[in-house]
Structure formats: structure tokens, C-alpha cells
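Subject — a protein and its fold
Fields — amino acid sequence, C-alpha cells
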Amino acid sequence: MAPSNAPSAAAAGTVTIGGEFTVNRLAFGAMRITGRGVWGDPPDVDEAKAVLRRAIELDTNFIDTADSYGPEVSENLIAEALYPYPDSLVIATKGGLERPGPGRWPANGRPDHLKEACEGSLRRLRLEQIPLYQFHRPDPSVPFGESIGALIELRREGKIRHIGLSNVTVPQLREARRITPIVSVQNRYNHADRSSDPVLEACEQDELAFLPWAPIQDHESNRGVQEVARRRGATVHQVALAWLLNLSPVMLPIPGTGSVAHLEENVAAAALELNEGEVRLLTSGD
């Protein structure tokens, strides 16, 4: 546990994934421990590893990554920094994208690709089973059900424990759930982009974890965020994260960074309790 004077992700409360994994609701997204354009090694490998270790010290017990981050760099660094893993740590990863170059993310939802991607993630993360494996993005050139079918096979083989989705619509979520249990959804969601409100509502109804990616982007023009930050003596990042945590009990923010100082700033948001007026102001988007 974090020392009493240190921020702790436990202050955010918990959410249970798949009826099995109970984790603190302020998690860590490991995309930013890579190079520019999410490509190659980070500028400072030692700092990236220090971020991961500090996240664990601050009671973060859920880390989200993907084979495409680097590619492969994020998963390798997680294992190098944290293996053997604490018993309480849940690692989620994703497959379904290719990385032909910096900033390029074409979808590949072919079953053979997903199976190969999962095998690679198992090897890099040094896991016998991935607790949560997420389909990174539906591929318009592959029937959605075929991609989901590959994940079902991986689960039957014991290579993954639970299936999650990413970048999906409500109809796609419903289609997948008709085929197999789904325990989480990871979509872009922040003050400036609430287009996934219907997906969040669907997750709330069925108690699925909702992982907002890019949770603290595009806040600069939000006057409410700026006002609450000034009033509370907090950073705009902390206010944005606190708003997400207040918005829904299934919300599991995954802010990422390659800096220990920025990590500690983010984790401190777990203890920032907003009042009803502040939540209304922030939710209005003014």
C-alpha cells in the first residue's frame, strides 16, 4: 500500500470485472511508455519502468496495454519492470490492429491474426493466461462475429480469462453479447467527446466496466474544468479524472504517462471529491 502521505488509487473505490477481478477505479494506461507516435522505445526506458513500479506502489492494480503499443514495447516493459507480478495486479491487453509505422493503426480482425497476436502478448507479458483480452477495433473487412469467435476459441483454450471490446457501438456490443459474455468496453470518452454516452449507459445497465481512453484530453477549452481546478487548487487533469469517477460507478479511467510526477498527479485525483454543483457544472460542458 502507498504511504499515508502519498496519493493512492484506492481512494477512487473499486469496480469488479467479470464478477471476478475487483480493482481500484483509477487505473494505468500503458500506451505512453513508448516512443513518439506510439512507436519504438520511450525516450527514457528507465523512467518508463519507474512509472510502472510507482503505479504499483500507489495502489494501481489494473494496467491496460496492447500489442500495438510500440508495437510490443509496452508489453515488454511491463514484464521487465513488474514480473513476477503482484497477486492483486490485473493486466489487460488488446489485439486487432497492425502497426506499419508511427501513427498508423489499420485494423486486422482476422481470426488468425487475433490468435497470433494473443500468443505474442502471452509471451511478452510472461503470462499463462491474460485476465482481460480486448478486441481493439472492429475490422470492416471481417465479419464481426468471426473476430469474436476467435476470442471465444482463445478463452476455451485457457489463454484468456475474459473478453472485452474496444471502439464499439451499442449494436456491436449487443451482437457480441448474443454470442458470448462480454465484461468490459473501452471507448474514447472525455469532456469534449461524449459520443459514447449510449455505450456507457449500456454498460451501466449490465454492470460492464467502461474504460474511457483519452480521458483527460481536450479539456483546455472547458471553462468548467478550469474554474473547478482554480477553486480546488487542483490541476485540470485531476478535475477531469475526478469528474469521470463521479459520473458512473462502472467507470475505470486509464490515464497514461511516461513521467513519475505526472503519474502521481493523476493518482491524486482519486481522492478529489466533487460536490453536486461542481459535477453539474462539469457535466454541462460549459
Summary: The longest strand covers residues 160-166. The chain has a mean pLDDT of 95. The chain is about 40% helix and 15% strand.
